[in-house]
Design goal:
TIM Barrel; about 270 residues; 12 helices; eight-stranded parallel β-barrel; 2 domains; about 15% strand; single chain; alpha/beta
Length: about 270
């Protein structure tokens, strides 16, 4: 088995110009497969609230729900780093609450680092976690909520156009430097775009990772595992290009299973 991934190793990859790769996963089996494939980190994202628990939005997911998934992913991962999101609530309540939540994710969940959303708005929380010895994956960037503070329109369909302004890039660089100085180990830059993304990568010494709205201008990429493999039911009829269409394959398999059972044939597996 390859050497276990460490945060210093990811930071060295940035210095060497090598791209790091992660996936967002919430269960043991997907974590095992991703780890076996060779991803550098597995992120237990708060998107689990919508995609697994059926919540109306990611803000509803609880710390206990995050812990269940973090434990499962931790059991499935042997080589990659495990990051787990601090759900909405503890960070917003204050530094002490954020620290208690992060300690649980590390101590009970087995996370190697915790992700703090909208981290540039909570630099004191980032500093407190780092002082406590908890590595931070700091998320920042353009979302429907944060775009307003940059005075620019936000469009999920055409976010790169909004990110192209020099003013937005300058302010995002300032936020990235703030988080770097606060001691964050990695940055998760949401909707970076090629202009602000490249500027931030050049401005900080830590790796800048991106999912939605990211691109090859960043130090690394992270992708929702369910998106990469077309896992969700919506992918059955989707036209978007993915690395596999698991949903369609599952539909075909279940259809064949039903046919065999109803015809009195022995079922497979």
């Amino acid at each position: 088995m390859a050497d276990q991934v460490t945060i210093p190793a990811l930071q060295q990859m940035k210095r060497d110009g090598k791209k790091s790769v992660g996936v967002v996963a919430w269960d043991y089996q997907i974590a095992r497969i991703a780890d076996r494939a060779g991803v550098d980190f597995v992120s237990v994202g708060d998107s689990v609230g919508v995609n697994l628990w059926g919540h109306a939005n990611p803000l509803e997911v609880t710390l206990d729900e995050m812990l269940v998934c973090c434990k499962a992913v931790r059991r499935g991962v042997a080589r990659a780093l495990v990051s787990c999101d601090v759900p909405f609530g503890p960070v917003q309540e204050g530094v002490d609450s954020a620290l208690r939540a992060a300690i649980r994710l590390v101590k009970e969940g087995g996370a190697d680092m915790v992700k703090v959303d909208a981290a540039a708005d909570f630099p004191d929380a980032v500093r407190a976690l780092v002082r406590a010895g908890i590595p931070v994956f700091a998320q920042f960037g353009l979302t429907p909520q944060t775009a307003m503070k940059y005075g620019i329109p936000y469009s999920a369909q055409n976010s790169a156009a909004a990110q192209a302004s020099a003013e937005a890039a300058s302010r995002l660089v300032e936020e990235a430097r703030l988080l770097d100085d606060a001691g964050a180990s990695l940055l998760d830059f949401t909707n970076s775009g090629p202009v602000a993304g490249a500027a931030v990568v050049a401005a900080v010494k830590i790796p800048v990772i991106g999912g939605f709205g990211g691109g090859p201008w960043l130090d690394g990429r992270v992708r929702l595992a369910h998106t990469a493999i077309g896992y969700g039911e919506t992918w059955i009829d989707a036209k978007t290009d993915t690395y596999a269409n698991t949903a369609k394959a599952a539909l075909e398999a279940f259809t064949a299973l039903i046919a065999d059972a109803r015809a009195g044939r022995q079922i497979k597996g």
